[in-house]
Amino acid sequence: MATAASDPSDDLAFIRKTMEDARRTVDLGGIFYVLWGSLCVLGTAASYLAAWLGAAGLIGAVWIAVALAGAVAMIPAARGRGSRTKTFASGLMGVAWGCAILVGAVFEVGAALSGTLTLESAMAGVSASIALGFLLSAAIARSRAMALLSVPWWLGGLFIGTLPAMTAPLALGSLTLLFELIPGIVIVARRKGREHEAEA
Amino acid sequence: MRPKPDYDHRRLDDVLHSRLRLAIAAALAAVDEMEFSALRDLVGATDGNMTTHTRRLEEEGYIEVRKRFVGRKPCTSYRLTKKGKAALAAYVEELGKFIGK
C-alpha cells in the first residue's frame, strides 16, 4: 500500500471502497460451527437413542433442548466476545442462524404436535434448517465456500427422509461431522494461525 | 482536474493524508470495533506499519485502543473516536470540494 495519498477523486473512491470492504468483513465464527456441530451430534445421538427405545415422540423435545443449549452457549458470542470485528453484517449473521434454527424448531414441534414426526423427517428438518443457515450466511458474507457448504445440507433435507429410520441419524451425524464440525475447526485453526502471526 | 475555488489543500488533515492511516480510519468508520489482525488483513499492512500508524492515530485521539485478554492471549481492538469521525468527515468534505461534489 502506498504511504502517501494521491489525487482527491482517487482518495474518495479509496475511502468508499475501504469502508465497503470493512462493512462486508464478517467473522465467520468457526467456534459457532464447532459448538452447533457438537450439539447436533449430541442431538442426533439422543434422537437415535429415543427412536431405539421406542420413544420417537421425544425427538422434538431433544431438538428444542439442543436449540436452547446452543442459544445459551452463544450468549457470549452474541455480546461480541471472540469476534474480530463488530459490524452490522456480523449481527445479521447471528440473526440468520437464529431464524434458521427457529424454522427447524417450529417444524419439529409442529410435526410432533400433529403426530406426524418420524425420526427420518426430524433429521431431514434439521438438515434443511442448517442448509438455510449456511445459505443466509453465504449471502451476508458473500462467501462462495459457505454457499457450497449448504449444498450437502439441502441434499440431506431432501433425501434423509427417504432413508430407513435408524440410518437417518447416522446420515445427519456424518453431514454434521463433514460439513459443520470440520469446517468449523478449520476456521478456528486459521484464525488462531493469524493471531499467532500478529503476536510474533 | 482543476480544483474548485474553495478547495485548499492546506486544510487537508496531515494525519489522514497517509494512505494507510486513511484506510485505517475509513475501515473503522464502517464498523463498531475491529481487532488488530482483522484490520491489518483488511488494509493490507504489515504488523510493523500497523503499529506505527495506529499509534499516530491514537496520539491524535482519532482512535481508541482496547487491550484485553481472551483466555491467556492478548487481544487489541480499535475503535474510531468522535474526534476521528469528525476528522474523517472533514477530510472527505475537503476532497469533495476539490472534485466539486
Give the helix/strand layout.
The complex is a heterodimer of chains A (200) and B (101).
Chain A: H1 8-24, H2 30-52, H3 59-73, H4 75-78, E1 85-86, H5 88-113, H6 119-141, H7 144-159, H8 168-199
Chain B: H1 19-29, E1 33-35, H2 36-43, H3 47-59, E2 63-70, E3 73-80, H4 82-98
Antiparallel strand pairs in B: 1-3, 2-3
Helix pairs in contact in B: 1-3
| Structural class assignment of chain B | alpha+beta
Could you give the distance between the termini of chain A?
Answer: 22 Å
The helical percent of chain A reads over 70%
Output mean pLDDT of chain A.
80
User: What's the oligomerization state?
Assistant: heterodimer
The residue ranges of chain B in which pLDDT falls below 50 over 5 or more consecutive positions are: none
Portion of residues in beta strands of chain B equals 15-25%
Q: Unreliable segments of chain A (pLDDT under 50, ≥5 consecutive)? A: none
Q: Number of DSSP helices of chain A? A: 8
- Sheet with the most strands, sense and barrel status of chain B: 3 strands, antiparallel
Main β sheet profile of chain A: none
Write down the secondary-structure element order of chain A: HHHHEHHHH
Mean pLDDT of chain B: 85
